[in-house]
């Protein structure tokens, strides 16, 4: 059996002085990081928390959060990072549902979400990491709280063995090594950012933990100044960065030539955006597909994107990915259906949510809730969410088809499409667009009519200054419905 963090301990033994964390005021080497992690592990045990106890991570600064996560996992406790922006009521419900034993906080005691709050700064500053190392293996290492864009948030646990396999499944494909540097631009409470940071340490690279600037232009300057080579972002972040590059005017080549691995996941990335990223940010675009429950299950690097620009990649080794119909039968290439995954790195169930577990975790594999199809070459393509399919008088409409047409209009910068209940048609197609130029709604209707079958043409189109997105860049469709006072949310 192996601990999820065994790579960090290995580098601490073999390369103790190599940089692990780069902070604004100091650099912490691998030996120092291992000692700091051990201090947290020792402190949690001193508070009477046994291995296997779920510990909510409710710290605010990136450095404190990362130390709390790593130290919790090292000693066999189960780290559950929380997004503090969710608010007290949501945090209380999550802590109760998952059976959290305590919370790690900064600069305070008392309670948090009804659990004993332990001040991280009160724990020992260092200790013997090898003495604290938990065997790991089939024991739980962490719990990730899903973003809740398609319903209530869920708590997805994963073991040490599963997390180690998820971490290392991409390291070779991304060609990461000790000379690389990663800067998290998403809060470490989110799996995409946290897992990439631990992946960086696992290969012996360094994680840059600097406060993020307020503008995308300043962020890109920070990336260049800190010689960051690896990023993990969502389409929402890429969109903001592309806008910043456009505002700066034409330059000589990509704006981030030093970022040789720009890994993007979390939502569908249109082919035109991918081309812009490779042309204006960095040619080193990597697209991955997966979930908090499964880890990454498919990946496409630059060479694969040259062959299939809109793919999310081919399935990773050891992972079976199928597209199936409503009865669970595999579909041939080119036919859209639900994506089903089987592998040993998939979580077994959600914590405290039997109904959601029954929907997703089935005897035939994990049902991702996404729709897509394979091509003849084995490339996987996403088409949307199962719940997003719009039933227009018995015809299935996939939002991505309509969104692609709207985005192809020169005056449209972004678009999202969803269904609204309507007595005559079951549902009608509704679109919200963000404009980059002046265009009338009637002209957008006409544009769509010339390119889409009648059932897929939006019946209603709304203009917004921007689309509401969560921390990971996903469009919050329920928030859009609320703002528009539309039924069906």
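^ structure tokens above, recovered residues below v
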């Amino acid at each position: 059996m192996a601990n999820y963090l065994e790579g960090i301990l290995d580098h601490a033994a073999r390369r103790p002085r190599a940089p692990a964390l780069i902070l604004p005021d100091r650099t912490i080497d691998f030996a120092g990081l291992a000692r700091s992690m051990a201090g947290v592990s020792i402190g949690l045990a001193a508070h009477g928390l046994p291995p296997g106890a779920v510990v909510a991570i409710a710290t605010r600064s990136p450095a404190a959060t990362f130390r709390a996560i790593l130290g919790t996992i090292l000693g066999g406790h189960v780290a559950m990072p929380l997004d503090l922006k969710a608010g007290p009521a949501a945090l209380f419900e999550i802590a109760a549902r998952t059976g959290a034993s305590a919370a790690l906080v900064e600069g305070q005691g008392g309670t948090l979400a009804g659990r004993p709050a332990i001040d991280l700064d009160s724990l020992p500053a260092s200790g013997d990491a090898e003495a604290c190392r938990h065997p790991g293996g089939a024991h739980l290492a962490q719990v990730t709280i899903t973003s809740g864009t398609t319903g209530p948030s869920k708590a997805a646990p994963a073991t040490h063995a599963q997390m180690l396999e998820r971490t290392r499944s991409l390291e070779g494909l991304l060609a990461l090594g000790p000379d690389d540097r990663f800067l998290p631009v998403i809060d470490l409470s989110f799996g995409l950012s946290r897992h990439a940071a631990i992946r960086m340490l696992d290969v012996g690279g360094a994680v840059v933990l600097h406060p993020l600037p307020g503008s995308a232009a300043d962020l890109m300057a920070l990336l260049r100044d800190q010689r960051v080579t690896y990023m993990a972002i969502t389409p929402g972040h890429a969109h903001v960065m592309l806008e910043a590059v456009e505002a700066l005017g034409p330059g000589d080549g990509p704006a981030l030539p030093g970022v040789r691995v720009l890994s993007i996941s979390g939502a569908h990335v249109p082919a035109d955006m991918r081309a812009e990223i490779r042309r204006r940010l960095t040619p080193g675009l990597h697209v991955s597909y997966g979930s908090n429950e499964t880890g990454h299950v498919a990946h496409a690097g630059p060479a694969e994107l040259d062959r299939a620009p809109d793919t999310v990649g081919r399935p990773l080794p050891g992972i079976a990915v199928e597209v199936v119909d409503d009865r669970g039968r595999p579909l041939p290439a080119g036919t859209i259906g639900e994506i089903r995954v089987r592998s040993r790195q998939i979580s077994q169930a959600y914590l405290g949510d039997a109904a959601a577990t029954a929907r997703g975790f089935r005897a035939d594999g994990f049902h991702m809730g996404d729709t897509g199809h394979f091509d003849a070459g084995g490339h996987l393509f996403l088409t949307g969410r199962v719940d997003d399919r719009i039933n227009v008088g018995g015809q299935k409409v996939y939002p991505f088809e309509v969104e692609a047409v709207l985005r192809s209009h020169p005056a449209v910068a972004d678009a999202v499409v969803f269904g609204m209940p309507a007595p005559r048609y079951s549902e009608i197609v509704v679109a919200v667009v963000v404009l980059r130029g002046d265009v009338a709604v009637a002209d957008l209707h006409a544009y769509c009519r010339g390119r889409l079958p009648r059932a897929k043409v939006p019946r209603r189109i709304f203009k917004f200054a921007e689309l509401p997105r969560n921390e990971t860049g996903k469009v919050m469709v329920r928030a859009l419905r609320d703002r528009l006072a539309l039924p069906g949310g």
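The longest strand covers residues 412-422.
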